[in-house]
Structures are given as structure tokens and as C-alpha cells.
Amino acid sequence: MAASKTLARQLRRHFGVADPDGASKIASVLAAPQSDPELHARIVAAFPRFLEALGDSYAQLERDVTLGTRSLELSSAELTAANQKLHAEAMAQAGVLRELRETANRLLADSSRPPLTDEVTDLLTMSSLMSDLVRQRAVAETEVSRTRSQLVSAIENLEAAIVMYDEDRRLIICNSRHREMFASVAHLLVPGTPHDVILRELYRRGAAGVLASDDEATWVEAMLERDHMTAGVCERQLDDRWIRIENAQTPDRLTVSLRTDITQFRQMTVELINAKESAERANVAKSYFLANMSHEIRTPMNGILGMAELARGLAVQPEQREYLDLVLSSADALLVIINDILDFSKIEAGKLTLESIPFSLRATLDRSLMALVQKAKDKGVSLRTESDPRLLEQELLGDPVRLSQVIINLVGNAVKFTESGEVVLRLGGRFRPDRTFTLEVSVDDTGIGIPADKLGLIFEAFSQADASTTRRFGGTGLGLAISARLVALMGGQIDVESREGSGSRFRFTAKMGLAPVQASASVDVGGAVAARRGGAGATTAIAAAPMRILLAEDNVVNQRLALSLLDRLGHRAIVAPTGQAALERLDDGEFDLVLMDVQMPVMGGLEAARRIRERERGSGRRIPIIAMTANAMQGDREACLAAGMDGYVSKPITPVGLAAELARVIDRVPR
């Protein structure tokens, strides 16, 4: 043991005692001087020098301990072992001094013994103080060792690689993750190794990021600059991995570098980007599919509804009119389903936007209920409204078509599910100081009601209270889902109260603006919510002066229908089956207006419209063009207007809608 060797050396040097039990022998001689008078005399004479030398040994020991604690070149296990060794030696020395002090105190207390000199007493006091210092130092070193051990353990257990260099760019410490990351130079990753030595070895081993054109000295200098002169974060590739590097400099000029493997994170990011792009492509494909589906379904529907409408006007037998009424009713029901699917798809894709235009609440309400009044009457169900007359005269700012759509859905459902009794539509509202208005609408019926366990599902898409194969009522299950989403877009809420067998109450709110006082005309809800067929509820068509119209349409049935409708409106039309044919017809004769289908072979309607506008440039002439298309997706109308068209009618075409659009365009577009 180091303490025993040091003590033996001091005893031999000052007292001539060299055996391993020399300290005990000195103690016994001091206790019984007559046992060895010569040794006792040497002890008394040499004791001051002995304690002084021993003090020097303690001073040297303190310097060694200080140096050991400041050295970071020791591993955690080595440092702990060294501290334990120093602590054991200090305890051994303290034990010897304690034994000597106790012996001296006994001698001083024994009056029969000759007194020791004052110098010996002072030296004993000094040895006691030094012993206390050794104990305090040992406790402090133990605490330092424990703290450093915890720090090293924490660094070792980090998922990230960490390395620290001193102000001379020499390695102080690194964890196992760092050694794994730089396995090719792991043998150099020991405390004291200069950073440039490690970098040169990495260069020679062809580390990731080293180009064939890179000079060794230039590359090493650049890496040193990056790691020691620039604090911050960067990412770089290391072999087949991506590493995130964070560098920082401490106030005492130490460099700390944290390296995190972000390969998996980057892979996930790439996968998310690919998934997003794939979803966007799928969404585009879905939009194209819906547009094509809309066109392919609406084109024959236009012929069915139009021709049935014309045939109904010519029918003379009641039975014929009844059959045609059934055809028109079935076609109308199919068109409602198509419109619901398209509306829901637009809402889900976030492509449905609301207008904010002035409209009359009374006119919107009248047109919403126009087709439903007869249905209720046919079933023997009373349909009535309750509202403040002053409210109905109010001019509002909002989207009348979508408001009407919600009202039609709710009132239509109420009529459909009510066998007897009544359906009541109530309207109210609250004016606000900021010139906004919250419309409050409720629909009450005495119908079959909704089971309690279905109330939470009815506003979900494709959900119905009765989903069995024997259900009595049809529908897609989209009406309420669309209504709920439209109400949300209008800044309101929708809810339902119902009891099975006792009827239901649907309520919703919608935030509207107040139209300026000077607004004297409201926007007509138009063909989207008006009755399809003529009669007491239909809007009287606005007559326009007879015109010579070029009809660009490739479908033969739709050609026949459009020609018949235009003839009934007093116009003369010539057919062009393609966009290219339409351009040639315009070269051959004068026309007042072009009624242009959008999807045609050879040349589509959009391209034909652009060609027409290019021809007119600088001529001072402009022929009105109205798009006539089965496309009904969001943006189709805007695309037609952007191509240079002036109006837009959606198939299936109604006589009222076509007449109104012809009159509007002719009135507004100078020829």
C-alpha cells in the first residue's frame, strides 16, 4: 500500500526504523522511554523534521489529487479507482497521525513522564489540522468523483453522438455513439488526440463527403473551420446516413459537437412528401373522374329531360302526359342524386366556395318551396311558414342558392317522412351592430321521427336512420351531410331534436350580411332551385329579340333539343358539330351569338372560344359566346369565362334558364 511505503520511508529516514510496524514501535518507545533510551532520544530530536517532511508529503499529495481531478483523460472507471486509492492512502496517513496524537496526549497527561517540548506540541497540533484537511479533501474528491461519474454516464447514454475538444483542438471526451459513428478512426478517439490528426485519417480512408478533387490540407482546414469556428446547425451525409450536426463554443473556448442520426427522419419526410404528392395526384384524378362522370351523365340527362319536356307539351292524351310526368319525375330524382354526389365531392375536396351577393329572403323562400308545395299537397300534408313579414322584406348579403339548398333538403325530408299532419318552416333572426344578421331557421314535422341511437349519425355521409333493404324511403343519405357542411361554411350550426313516432325538429343558423340600402334589385336564385317545368310556379322567360345563333354541339340528341328550344324562343339556329366547324361557319356568315358546347371532338369549346377572341382582336367586333356544358364542377364556369366566353348554362338545360341567360348576355355584351 502506498501509505505504508511512504510512512516506512519517512520512519527510516528520520528515526532509522524500517520494519513494517515502525509506527507502533515509535509509539511504544514514546510510552516507555526506558525500553530504548537511544531510540527515544532520536525520536525527540528528529520529530520536528519528521512532521515537516510528512507535511511536505501531504502537500505533494494534494497537488497530485488536484491534478487528477482536473485531468479529463481518465475514464469514469479509472477516475473512480484513482480517487478510491487516494482516499485509502489519506485515511491510512490520518490513522497513523491519530495514533501518534493519541500517544502524545497520553504522555502529556501522565505527570510521571518527562514533559515534551513545545515544538513537539505544535507539531502534533499541525498534524491534527492536516489530518482534518485530508479528511475534507477525501470527502470532496468522493463527491467530485460521483458527480463526474454521473455526467460521464449521462453522456454515454445519449442517443446522439457527443464529442468535446479543448481550446487547443485536442479531444477531451466522446461517447460510444460517436465512436460507432466514426468506427474507421475509433482507435484515435482517445483523450488528447488532436482533431486534425483524426480528420487526416478520415480523409485517407475516404470519408463520406470527401471528393476526389479535394486536397487533404484544404479539406482538413475546412472541417476544422466548420467544427471549431462556426456555431450552428447543419446536415450532411455520412456514407448511407444523414447526420444533423450542432456545434457550440463555451466561454472557456471548449468546442462541443452533437451529432444526431436523422436518416430515419429524412426517410419519413420523403415518404410523407411522396404520400402527399400521391394523394394530390389521386385527388386530381378524382376531380377529372367526377368531371367526366358529370359530363357523361348530364349529356344524356339533358336529352331525356328536354325531349320529355317537349313531348309533354305536345301530348294530347291524359295517359301520355301521365307517363311523361313520371319520366320527368324520375329524371329529376336522378339529377338530384347526381348533384348531391358532386356537391359532396366538392365540399370534401375543399373546392366549394360561397358567394356573397345581395338577395331577397322572400324570393329565395318562395323559390325554395315552389316544388315542395305540390308534393305536400299530393300527400295530404299541410306545409306552411311562420315568420315576421318585415324579416321577409330584408335584403341580405350571402349565397341564396346554397341557403335555398339547405331549406329544400330539410323541408323536402320533412315532407317525405310525414304521412299525415303538417310541416312548419319558421324563420327568425338577430340583427347585430356590425351590420350582420344571424338567420335562424327551424323545420318541424309530425312524421315518423328518428330513433335516439341514430341521432348522432344522420349528419354523416351516406348515413340514414333506416338503412335496411326493406326501407320505405329512397335517397343517397347525402342531403343532411351536405346541409351540415353548407351551414358550417355559412358560419352557423345545425342540430336536431326528434322522438321516434312523434316527428322531428331541425334547426340551423347562418350568418349573413345586410345589403346596402341603395340596392334595389336582388339576385334571382334561378334555375338551380326553381321548378323545372312550366306552370303556376315557373318563372316567365325573358323574351329576347329574334337572333341568328350558331349552335356548336356534337351530340345529335342535344342538337335536336337545343334547336327546338331556340325555335320556341323565336330564334334561328345553325349547327356546327365541332369547334373547328364553328370557326368555319363564322367565316361563312353573320351570327348574333354562339351557343358553344365545351367538350367536342377535333376542337373543344374552350379552344374555339380563344380562337374567336384572337380573330376579333383589333377589329372592334365581339360576338357573344355562351357556354353550354354538362360539366358542373367547381371552376368550370371560371374556365369558360377565362377562355373569353360571356355566359354559362349547365346541362340539363331548361327553357327558362336558357332564355334568361340569352337575354342577360345580349343585354350586357355590345355586339
Q: What features would you describe in this structure?
A:
This protein is of the alpha/beta class. 52% of the residues lie in helices and 16% in strands. It has 19 helices and 17 strands. It has helices at residues 2-15, 22-31, 37-70, 76-109, 118-156, 176-181, 195-204, 216-229, 263-314, 318-348, 361-379, 389-392, 400-416, 479-489, 556-568, 579-588, 605-616, 636-642, 655-668, and strands at 161-165, 171-174, 232-238, 241-249, 255-261, 357-360, 382-386, 395-398, 422-431, 436-445, 494-499, 503-514, 548-552, 572-576, 593-597, 625-629, 647-650. The strands form three sheets. Strands 6, 7, 8, 9, 10, 11 and 12 form a seven-stranded mixed sheet that branches. A five-stranded antiparallel sheet has the order 2-1-5-4-3. Strands 14-13-15-16-17 form a five-stranded parallel sheet, with helices on both faces. Helix 1 crosses helix 4, helix 3 runs antiparallel to helix 4 and helix 16 (579-588) runs parallel beside helix 17. The protein starts with a helix and ends with a helix. The model is unreliable at 65-77, 467-471 and 518-542 (pLDDT under 50).
Helix and strand content put the structural class at alpha/beta
**Spatial extent as radius of gyration:** 49 Å
According to DSSP, the number of beta strands is 17
Q: What proportion of the residues form beta strands (DSSP E)?
A: 15-25%
Strand count, sense and barrel status of the largest sheet are: 7 strands, mixed
- Overall morphology: elongated
